[in-house]
Write a structure and sequence with these properties.
Number of domains: 1
Number of helices: 0
Radius of gyration: 12 Å
Strand order of the largest sheet: 1-2-3-4-5-6
Strand content: over 45%
Distance between the termini: 6 Å
Length: 82
């Protein structure tokens, strides 16, 4: 099941084919290498957008990462826990 979070992260991303592609992120002092982006979507909040990315890291952990245009910040918004 997914656990809701709202914790800041540092993220490195590439622009590939005119799209943002998360590559790795740092959370709680640990670096996670993203092996796959399984989904991405946007939601509108007034004049700004929130960008959501469902990702899998190199250890097969699932995360939802979110970029807030208004705050220009990344957060980890969900983590898969068993």
């Amino acid at each position: 099941m997914y656990q809701d979070m709202d914790e800041p992260i540092e993220l490195i991303a590439l622009f590939e084919n005119h799209k943002l592609k998360p590559v790795r992120f740092r959370w709680n002092g640990r670096v996670y290498k993203i092996s796959e982006v399984t989904g991405d979507w946007k939601t509108d909040v007034g004049a700004y957008k929130i960008h959501h990315y469902a990702v899998v890291d190199s250890s097969s952990n699932f995360f939802q990462l979110t970029y807030d245009e208004r705050r220009t910040s990344w957060v980890i918004s969900k983590v898969w826990v068993e």
